Amino acid sequence: MNKESLLISETSNYIKDEQALLLIRDALELIKTKFQDRFILDKISLNDFVLDVCLSLAKMQSEPNTLISALLYNLNENENKLIEDKFSKEVLTMVSALRKIDNVKKLTNYEIDNENFRKIFVALAKDYKVIIIRLVIQETLMGYLNLFNQEFRENVSKETLDIYAPLAHRLGMFKLKSKLENKSLFYLDNDMYLYIQKSLKQKEEERIETIEEMKRQLTKLLNDNEIEFYSISGRPKQIYSIYNKMKNKKLTFDEVYDLLALRIITKTEVNCYEVLGYIHAVYKPVPGRFKDYIAVPKPNMYQSLHTSVIGSDDNIYEIQIRTREMDDIAEKGIAAHWKYKEGTSLKAQKQIDEQLHWFRDYISSDVLNKESNEQVENLKKDIFEADIYVMSPRGKVIDLPVGSTPIDFAYRIHSNVGHSCVGALVNGIMVPLNKELKTGDVVVIKTSKLHTLPSNNWLQFVKTSLAKNQIKKALLQKDKEEFRQQIIDRGKELVSEEVRNKNIDVKDVLGVLEDVNFLKNYGVSKLEDLYMSVANRTVSATSLIEKVRTRLGQTKTPTFEFKKKEISRPSKEGIIVKGIDNIKVTLANCCNPIPGDEIIGYVSRGKGVRIHQSSCATIEGENSRLIEVSWDENIVNNILHQVDIIIRASDRSNLLIEIMNVFSQLKITVVELNALIHND
Prior knowledge:
Elements: H1 3-12, H2 18-34, E1 39-40, E2 44-45, H3 46-59, H4 64-72, H5 80-86, H6 89-108, H7 114-124, H8 128-143, H9 150-170, H10 174-188, H11 190-224, E3 229-234, H12 239-249, H13 253-256, E4 260-266, H14 269-282, E5 284-285, E6 291-292, E7 305-310, E8 316-323, H15 324-332, H16 345-355, H17 357-363, H18 373-384, E9 386-391, E10 397-401, H19 406-413, H20 415-419, E11 421-426, E12 429-431, E13 443-447, H21 465-502, H22 506-513, H23 516-520, H24 527-535, H25 541-552, E14 575-577, E15 585-587, E16 599-603, E17 609-613, E18 626-627, E19 629-631, H26 655-665
Parallel strand pairs: 4-8, 15-17
Antiparallel strand pairs: 1-2, 3-4, 5-7, 6-7, 7-8, 9-10, 11-12, 11-13, 14-19, 16-17, 16-18
């Protein structure tokens, strides 16, 4: 049976909607003509490749649009109208997202930097089904790597370990994750892969009787107590998992492979706890090794009881206890929940969307700013290295990176909860907001309607990129509003001064300035925007008031006056702020800039612009609040600046008198003088 027939047979087993099956057949017919004689990198038949992908998806019982999208994503963009008209807009959206990822990879030859990582994740965020399709595409590609040269194998394998294997892990797809990791190691470090594989075979032969004996003992224990269960089996060790432990902990194979592992599959959830009770009654549990993931599932839906016990042979056995359904989820993760069933797809989508909230949160939070490598690195850590699980009072499990705080937790709930956070209870006890959370903590966030802005100090201890981004965004918005208000106030002041000079009634002027039709003459809809234009000198206050007088019917009295040439007045420190006149300017005490120094302006809250040396460490990382400034060469030489002068000299009589004479000749005023004598 060829691949096309296999796919039709596989999908017919679980899809009963004849219209859906007909669309799948139409997609198959379409690619048969469109993909004829097309190859991936001149090596793989495109038709065979997409059929392999779809067969894997069909075995996972994927819904029809997912299968159709996987078949069609290699069609050219000029086929978009055909895809939407023939199939659906949802299919076109998924096809477009998959194309974007494919285009990134083609352009970069599979070398994924932070910018391309960002593009891939934005595309993946379009639909949870795109994530599953992309993981299966990667698994399929790994199966064809033997056809390519070593450089290409290594690039694809690195990409798999960096992005797709961790993503499969976060989605609970451990079976797929293990396949991706093991295959990648096979190409990246073949000698180590073969060494571990050989060692595993030898160890399995040595320990098989030990495992079988424990299985016999556990089977008898459960049968004697009439506990229903399906199976007891040994758990194979994964090659990549062993490799990772050897590498990270600098251990030998024997030191890593010292654990005997068993899994018990029961009929019901109640049976799980019954099995645990009988095992602990007979075998001594190892302290601190019990985990109840049934009562508190992991965010990726994983459920199981974990315990470690000392057997009658004094060996330590790690035992997992779970139902058949839990085992299915543990192996397949999110894929176990998305099996296509007519009439239940909406419910399934809602359940999966809830499980993928962490992914959507990060993508939609502007954290993937393409100009910030640091933010993308933080995103990788947030998504791939979450390692603690904390709970809301209602039992909702939130996964966070190690070192996270109540503030990180608050922002994971909602940005408004984070902004208005004023305190936190952890396990019923009030704690500081910088307290590091641990797995199992129950966190209650206290908020206040009066507290709507985050503290700048929070940036010193929050862990997640989501929290950092939301805090910076809120603070930046506040700074922009304050700076904008300063400019508006300056514009208002200039207009008021002109009104006073012309001796016009203020109420009459406001009546005209607030007229929407009058404002349209200046391309604005609000009076505040007009004041900003006046402050920025794009609108003259004099010209504006003359137009107001014309509107009021007042005419100018002819006079013969010599107009003084208007000179823009710099600040008293001789500083020009680009685009803004007459704003408050002060020199920073931390670096004491003087004429000749390269300078930059820092917009401070309610205090105008502080002038720093460009190299000043105080303003590092504050790019969002910096503004271009310069010295006014016309007057700067006539302004006195206080500076520190350090003079080192050999001690002698009348030294201070000589120094003061020099200062006097140079017309330097001494404000303060300190003299120190060093014996060396």
